[in-house]
Amino acid sequence: IEDNKIYSEEVISLLKISLLNYFAAALLMPYDEFLQSAKKNKYDVEILMHHFATSFEQVTHRLTNLQRPGNEGVPFHFLKTDIAGNVSKRFSLSGIHIPRHGGSCPRWNVYIAFLNPGRIHPQISKMPDGKTYFCIARAFEKGIEKHGMPKSFVSIGLGCDIQYAKELTYSEGMDLQNKKLETPIGVSCRICPREDCQQRAFPPIDKELKLDISYRGTSPYVTI
Fold first, then answer.
1. pTM summary value
2. What is the residue-wise DSSP string for 166-220?
Protein backbone atom coordinates (compact mmCIF):
# COMPACT_ATOMS: atom_id res chain seq x y z
CA ILE A 1 0.00 0.00 0.00
CA GLU A 2 2.82 2.40 0.88
CA ASP A 3 4.72 1.52 -2.32
CA ASN A 4 1.69 2.56 -4.38
CA LYS A 5 1.47 5.87 -2.50
CA ILE A 6 -2.10 5.40 -1.33
CA TYR A 7 -2.90 7.84 1.46
CA SER A 8 -6.69 7.91 1.67
CA GLU A 9 -7.76 6.26 4.91
CA GLU A 10 -11.00 5.05 3.31
CA VAL A 11 -9.16 3.44 0.40
CA ILE A 12 -6.55 1.92 2.70
CA SER A 13 -9.29 0.37 4.86
CA LEU A 14 -10.99 -1.11 1.79
CA LEU A 15 -7.69 -2.50 0.53
CA LYS A 16 -6.95 -4.09 3.89
CA ILE A 17 -10.39 -5.72 3.93
CA SER A 18 -9.80 -7.09 0.42
CA LEU A 19 -6.37 -8.44 1.36
CA LEU A 20 -7.72 -10.03 4.54
CA ASN A 21 -10.53 -11.66 2.55
CA TYR A 22 -8.03 -12.98 0.02
CA PHE A 23 -5.83 -14.36 2.80
CA ALA A 24 -8.83 -16.09 4.39
CA ALA A 25 -9.83 -17.64 1.06
CA ALA A 26 -6.28 -18.85 0.43
CA LEU A 27 -6.19 -20.36 3.91
CA LEU A 28 -9.53 -22.15 3.56
CA MET A 29 -8.94 -23.17 -0.06
CA PRO A 30 -5.18 -23.72 -0.58
CA TYR A 31 -4.16 -23.06 -4.18
CA ASP A 32 -2.78 -26.44 -5.29
CA GLU A 33 -5.31 -28.57 -3.42
CA PHE A 34 -8.23 -26.42 -4.52
CA LEU A 35 -7.19 -26.31 -8.18
CA GLN A 36 -6.59 -30.06 -8.25
CA SER A 37 -10.02 -30.70 -6.76
CA ALA A 38 -11.65 -28.22 -9.13
CA LYS A 39 -10.17 -29.92 -12.19
CA LYS A 40 -10.93 -33.40 -10.88
CA ASN A 41 -14.59 -32.50 -10.30
CA LYS A 42 -14.91 -30.42 -13.49
CA TYR A 43 -15.43 -27.21 -11.55
CA ASP A 44 -18.54 -28.50 -9.80
CA VAL A 45 -19.11 -25.64 -7.37
CA GLU A 46 -21.37 -27.57 -5.01
CA ILE A 47 -18.85 -30.39 -4.59
CA LEU A 48 -16.14 -27.82 -3.89
CA MET A 49 -18.42 -26.13 -1.35
CA HIS A 50 -18.80 -29.44 0.47
CA HIS A 51 -15.13 -30.39 0.18
CA PHE A 52 -13.81 -27.11 1.59
CA ALA A 53 -16.78 -26.21 3.83
CA THR A 54 -17.25 -22.87 2.12
CA SER A 55 -20.09 -20.93 0.49
CA PHE A 56 -21.09 -20.59 -3.16
CA GLU A 57 -19.69 -17.07 -3.28
CA GLN A 58 -16.40 -18.07 -1.65
CA VAL A 59 -15.85 -20.94 -4.09
CA THR A 60 -16.75 -19.01 -7.23
CA HIS A 61 -14.63 -16.05 -6.13
CA ARG A 62 -11.68 -18.34 -5.44
CA LEU A 63 -12.03 -19.87 -8.91
CA THR A 64 -11.15 -16.47 -10.38
CA ASN A 65 -7.82 -16.46 -8.48
CA LEU A 66 -6.30 -19.56 -10.06
CA GLN A 67 -3.92 -18.03 -12.59
CA ARG A 68 -0.50 -18.85 -11.15
CA PRO A 69 1.94 -19.08 -14.10
CA GLY A 70 2.48 -22.70 -15.05
CA ASN A 71 -0.41 -23.94 -12.92
CA GLU A 72 -3.51 -22.14 -14.14
CA GLY A 73 -7.17 -22.96 -13.96
CA VAL A 74 -9.93 -21.84 -16.30
CA PRO A 75 -9.90 -18.02 -16.66
CA PHE A 76 -13.33 -17.11 -15.30
CA HIS A 77 -15.30 -13.93 -15.05
CA PHE A 78 -17.32 -13.29 -11.90
CA LEU A 79 -20.27 -11.03 -11.18
CA LYS A 80 -22.24 -10.35 -8.02
CA THR A 81 -25.44 -8.35 -8.19
CA ASP A 82 -28.55 -7.68 -6.16
CA ILE A 83 -32.11 -7.94 -7.45
CA ALA A 84 -32.07 -4.27 -8.47
CA GLY A 85 -29.05 -4.81 -10.71
CA ASN A 86 -26.49 -3.14 -8.45
CA VAL A 87 -23.13 -4.77 -9.20
CA SER A 88 -21.10 -5.04 -6.00
CA LYS A 89 -18.29 -7.30 -7.20
CA ARG A 90 -16.89 -7.98 -10.66
CA PHE A 91 -13.86 -9.68 -12.23
CA SER A 92 -13.32 -10.45 -15.91
CA LEU A 93 -10.50 -12.83 -16.72
CA SER A 94 -12.57 -14.23 -19.60
CA GLY A 95 -12.63 -10.87 -21.36
CA ILE A 96 -16.40 -10.37 -21.20
CA HIS A 97 -17.61 -6.81 -20.70
CA ILE A 98 -19.35 -6.60 -17.32
CA PRO A 99 -21.65 -3.68 -16.46
CA ARG A 100 -20.39 -1.45 -13.67
CA HIS A 101 -23.73 -0.09 -12.55
CA GLY A 102 -27.46 -0.80 -12.82
CA GLY A 103 -29.44 -0.92 -16.04
CA SER A 104 -27.76 -4.13 -17.14
CA CYS A 105 -28.99 -6.53 -19.81
CA PRO A 106 -31.90 -8.61 -18.40
CA ARG A 107 -30.96 -11.53 -20.64
CA TRP A 108 -27.92 -12.36 -18.52
CA ASN A 109 -28.59 -15.54 -16.55
CA VAL A 110 -27.29 -13.81 -13.41
CA TYR A 111 -30.59 -11.87 -13.40
CA ILE A 112 -32.78 -14.72 -14.62
CA ALA A 113 -31.50 -16.74 -11.64
CA PHE A 114 -33.59 -14.60 -9.29
CA LEU A 115 -36.68 -16.35 -10.68
CA ASN A 116 -35.50 -19.66 -9.19
CA PRO A 117 -33.22 -19.01 -6.19
CA GLY A 118 -30.95 -21.86 -5.19
CA ARG A 119 -30.81 -23.41 -8.64
CA ILE A 120 -27.76 -23.20 -10.91
CA HIS A 121 -28.66 -21.79 -14.33
CA PRO A 122 -26.29 -22.54 -17.25
CA GLN A 123 -26.30 -20.31 -20.31
CA ILE A 124 -24.42 -19.98 -23.59
CA SER A 125 -24.11 -16.21 -23.90
CA LYS A 126 -23.21 -14.35 -27.07
CA MET A 127 -22.09 -10.73 -26.92
CA PRO A 128 -22.66 -8.20 -29.74
CA ASP A 129 -18.96 -8.42 -30.70
CA GLY A 130 -19.51 -12.08 -31.63
CA LYS A 131 -17.65 -13.59 -28.69
CA THR A 132 -19.39 -16.46 -26.93
CA TYR A 133 -19.18 -17.46 -23.28
CA PHE A 134 -20.43 -20.30 -21.13
CA CYS A 135 -21.92 -19.01 -17.89
CA ILE A 136 -23.61 -20.29 -14.77
CA ALA A 137 -25.55 -18.28 -12.21
CA ARG A 138 -27.24 -18.87 -8.90
CA ALA A 139 -29.33 -16.56 -6.70
CA PHE A 140 -29.59 -17.07 -2.96
CA GLU A 141 -30.46 -15.41 0.32
CA LYS A 142 -27.58 -13.38 1.71
CA GLY A 143 -26.81 -12.12 5.19
CA ILE A 144 -28.71 -12.20 8.45
CA GLU A 145 -31.79 -10.06 9.03
CA LYS A 146 -33.83 -9.46 12.16
CA HIS A 147 -37.17 -11.19 12.42
CA GLY A 148 -39.77 -9.38 10.36
CA MET A 149 -37.22 -7.61 8.17
CA PRO A 150 -37.17 -8.25 4.40
CA LYS A 151 -34.61 -10.80 3.26
CA SER A 152 -31.71 -9.83 1.02
CA PHE A 153 -31.02 -11.79 -2.16
CA VAL A 154 -27.98 -11.69 -4.41
CA SER A 155 -27.03 -13.52 -7.56
CA ILE A 156 -23.58 -14.77 -8.50
CA GLY A 157 -22.54 -15.25 -12.11
CA LEU A 158 -19.48 -17.25 -13.16
CA GLY A 159 -18.38 -17.84 -16.72
CA CYS A 160 -15.61 -18.45 -19.21
CA ASP A 161 -14.87 -18.30 -22.90
CA ILE A 162 -16.79 -21.01 -24.76
CA GLN A 163 -13.52 -22.79 -25.58
CA TYR A 164 -13.24 -23.86 -21.93
CA ALA A 165 -16.87 -24.96 -21.54
CA LYS A 166 -16.13 -28.68 -21.91
CA GLU A 167 -14.00 -28.51 -18.78
CA LEU A 168 -17.09 -27.61 -16.74
CA THR A 169 -19.58 -30.22 -15.55
CA TYR A 170 -22.44 -27.80 -16.25
CA SER A 171 -21.92 -28.10 -20.01
CA GLU A 172 -22.51 -31.85 -20.04
CA GLY A 173 -25.46 -32.76 -22.25
CA MET A 174 -25.41 -29.40 -24.03
CA ASP A 175 -24.62 -29.07 -27.72
CA LEU A 176 -22.09 -26.25 -27.51
CA GLN A 177 -22.00 -25.93 -31.31
CA ASN A 178 -25.75 -25.40 -31.61
CA LYS A 179 -26.26 -21.72 -32.43
CA LYS A 180 -29.92 -21.99 -31.42
CA LEU A 181 -28.85 -22.49 -27.80
CA GLU A 182 -26.98 -19.18 -27.73
CA THR A 183 -28.64 -16.35 -25.84
CA PRO A 184 -27.82 -12.95 -27.38
CA ILE A 185 -26.89 -10.60 -24.54
CA GLY A 186 -25.33 -7.16 -24.20
CA VAL A 187 -23.87 -4.93 -21.52
CA SER A 188 -26.75 -2.47 -21.23
CA CYS A 189 -29.48 -1.13 -23.51
CA ARG A 190 -27.83 2.23 -24.13
CA ILE A 191 -24.73 0.72 -25.72
CA CYS A 192 -26.25 -2.46 -27.16
CA PRO A 193 -26.62 -2.57 -30.96
CA ARG A 194 -29.33 -5.27 -30.95
CA GLU A 195 -32.20 -3.28 -32.44
CA ASP A 196 -34.53 -6.29 -32.54
CA CYS A 197 -34.33 -7.09 -28.80
CA GLN A 198 -37.84 -7.38 -27.38
CA GLN A 199 -36.49 -6.64 -23.89
CA ARG A 200 -34.97 -3.30 -24.80
CA ALA A 201 -35.76 -0.69 -22.13
CA PHE A 202 -33.92 2.27 -23.71
CA PRO A 203 -32.89 3.21 -27.25
CA PRO A 204 -29.21 2.87 -28.24
CA ILE A 205 -27.28 6.12 -27.91
CA ASP A 206 -25.45 5.73 -31.23
CA LYS A 207 -28.47 5.26 -33.50
CA GLU A 208 -31.27 7.50 -34.69
CA LEU A 209 -34.53 6.72 -32.94
CA LYS A 210 -37.20 5.71 -35.44
CA LEU A 211 -40.55 4.68 -34.01
CA ASP A 212 -43.29 2.88 -35.91
CA ILE A 213 -46.61 4.11 -34.50
CA SER A 214 -48.44 1.32 -36.33
CA TYR A 215 -46.46 -1.41 -34.55
CA ARG A 216 -46.94 -2.47 -30.95
CA GLY A 217 -44.34 -4.75 -29.45
CA THR A 218 -43.07 -5.50 -25.99
CA SER A 219 -40.81 -2.45 -26.28
CA PRO A 220 -41.48 0.82 -28.13
CA TYR A 221 -37.79 1.02 -29.03
CA VAL A 222 -37.71 -2.11 -31.18
CA THR A 223 -37.23 -0.95 -34.77
CA ILE A 224 -37.13 -4.33 -36.50
1. 0.89
2. GGSGGGTT--TT-GGGEEE--SBGGG---TT-TT--S--TTS-----TT---S-T
